[in-house]
Design goal:
0% strand, 78% helix, globular, 318 residues, disordered C terminus, mainly alpha
Amino acid sequence: MTAQDRSTGARRRGRRGEQLMVPKAEFDSYYGRPVIKPPSWAARDIAGYFFLGGLAGAGSVFAASAQYTGRTRTETALKVSSLAAVSLSAAALIHDLGRPARFANMLRVFKPTSPMSMGTWLLSAYGPAAGAAAVCAVTGRLPRTGALATGTAAVLGPVVAAYTAVLAADTAVPGWHGVHRELPYLFTASATAAAAGMALVVAPVHENTPARRAAGLAALADTVAMKAAQRRLGPVAETYREGRAGTLLRTAQALTLAGAAGAAVLGRSRPAAIASGLALLAGSACTRFGVFAAGVASAEDPRYTVGPQRERLEEQAR
């Protein structure tokens, strides 16, 4: 009998319940330490960058829609809010980088395979367009330039709102990489909720019907995307339900649903519209901070990096 025959026989006997000659492989981390290095990003800067970028990008789409439908006050207010949001977003990113020169240095390279490189170029194109749209709307001058800038910002806006999800998912962090398909949908829905909330806060009541409808759709999409993400993650989804991340995400869901319901039922009242809008804005912010906290927790716990390796081995053995 050859060595290969003996090995095959041992595997067959192992399937019938006998003990295998070779012990089952196990994965473990070194003294329980994290297998990967947790993100070094500061939560206030990067989670804030995620939220503000989403608000700016989706806000530009709402502003273009308001301009097209003749909602002048809503158009101007949203253009100004998008400019403020993208400015604060860039400031948060630069603060996390440590030196403004690092942001400028990233423009020396155009690397389509790098989400950070593409994001830097995207902000560099979107920011001036949003700024020109806001200035033209406030001053009333150069209407053709303003229209071109508004259209450019509206085209780039959805990418600005969603690309930060790609940036997070393009890491080894289990809580982010494991939902690389669902995270862009979640971030887009959250950004839409934030922009709808801003529109409810700044727009007159007779102009807020589109924002009220968008709030309901965004809340539904946000809920569906979050549930799909947690199903995809399996055991890693515990980081989305426990600790600081769990508290933030439960708060986000409650605020988003309450804001959408308030906008639908009471949105014709100015105080209720403002309260609903603030709830949607706060819910969107909690979503971004919650997802950030869940990712950090998944990287710090070796169970969520070692576990997937063990599961893949067991599936191959079956």
